[in-house]
Amino acid sequence: SNIAPKIALVTGATSGFGDAIARRLVAEGWRIVATGRRQDRLEALVEALGGPAVVHPLCFDIRDEEATRAALASLPAEFADISVLVNNAGLALGTGAAQDCDLEQWRTMIDTNVTGLVTITRLLLDRLIARRGLIVNLASAASNWPYPGSNVYGGTKAFVRQFSLGLRSDLSAQGVRVTSIEPGLAESEFTLVRTGGDKAAYDALYAGAHPLQPEDIAETVRWVVSQPPHVNINSVEIMPVSQSWAPFRIHRE
Ligand code: NDP
Ligand code: 8X3
After folding, report:
1. 7-238, what's its fold?
2. Interval 15-25: pLDDT, tens
3. Which of 15, 49, 64, 178 is the most exposed place for a label (fewest CB within 10 A)?
4. Measured between alpha carbons, how far is 21 from 8 in angstroms, rounded to an integer?
5. How far apart are CA 190 and CA 92, in angstroms?
6. Annotated catalytic residue: which of 147, 153, 202, 206?
7. Helices 117-130 and 151-171, axial angle in degrees (round to 10)
8. d(Cα 132, Cα 83) in Å, to the nearest integer?
9. Are 37 and 58 a contacting pair, CB within 8 Å?
10. Domain locations along the chain
């Protein structure tokens, strides 16, 4: 084809934000490389979005460097020329105080949100530079604001935000753009994953709060990606209207 294809790789496209971002970018004319561990969800996404010419699924665990390398090496030529990377795959595990937390859950968050994210970013950097591409990283309001129980999750997301800004410094001469998106309260399976499948906790968290929806984040990504090439959106913090700040808490003896 004489029309240059626009290809975006979206990690964690099997639910929540990633699924909505993939749908939105396809509606804007992009072709998508969609990743995640759940093959059935990836297959359903391919089906829903117009088939294998539009969406290419890559099923792998982002914590596994060899699996990530093999998945990227398997990309057919029509999907290899990636110009946008959306680093969205990630998770929180647990809501408790640090002294009650499970070290294994902490490691899983670091391996996924930090190590997995930097690994796929590094592996795609040469082609992103070659195409003067764009990296969109899903950080969090928890990057910017501590709250009880944010401990390691917030730490990983602060890393994602600061890594984004540092990447941007390194890549600006290459014309590569980098954006950190920092959502607050948003409704998705995220909360079921975080609470170990506690539907009552899910319902209580979102009750009456009109939380952000995955489509709100997809719209933000669409806006970031559609800026003219001389414009870099550094960071976007986005919350539902219902969410705002509280006074400092004072613990008294
Ligand atoms: P979901 O739980 O709905 O989606 C998370 C996605 O990440 C899934 O597609 C999942 O795919 C993928 N994923 C998780 N672990 C791995 C892994 N080891 N390997 C590959 N893929 C993985 O959550 P959201 O859509 O809400 O969250 C998306 C991002 O946004 C996360 O980084 C989250 O931290 C961030 N965020 C979420 C907020 C919220 O309140 N919902 C607010 C702010 C930021 P699969 O299970 O198939 O592997
Ligand atoms: C998820 C948003 O506020 O639950 O990143 O940490 S929050």
Report:
1. Rossmann fold (3.40.50)
2. 999 999 999 99
3. 64
4. 10
5. 7
6. 153
7. 20
8. 7
9. no
10. 7-238
- Please compute the mean of the pLDDT values over residues 156-161 and round it to a whole number: 99
- Told to judge if 206 belongs to the known catalytic residues of this protein, a careful annotator would answer no
- The string over 183-194, giving b where at least 16 C-beta atoms fall within 10 Å of a residue's C-beta and e elsewhere, is bbbbbbebbeeb
d(CA 199, CA 204): 9
Q: Whose CA is nearest to atom 32 of ligand 1?
A: 90
Reading the block at residue 98, the tokens are: 């640090």
Work out the angle at residue 95's Cα, subtended by the Cα atoms of residues 152 and 241, and round it to the nearest 5 degrees: 95
Angle between helices 16-27 and 39-48 (to 10 degrees): 20
- Distance between Cα 185 and ligand 2 center (Å): 6
The answer to whether the complex's ipTM is over 0.95 is yes
Sign of CA pseudo-dihedral 117, 237, 221, 51: positive
The pLDDT tens digits of the residues spanning 37-86 come to 999 999 999 999 999 999 999 999 999 999 999 999 999 999 999 999 99
Q: Name the nearest CA neighbour of 212 among 24, 27, 20, 35.
A: 20
Question: Measured between alpha carbons, how far is 143 from 155 in angstroms, rounded to an integer?
Answer: 7
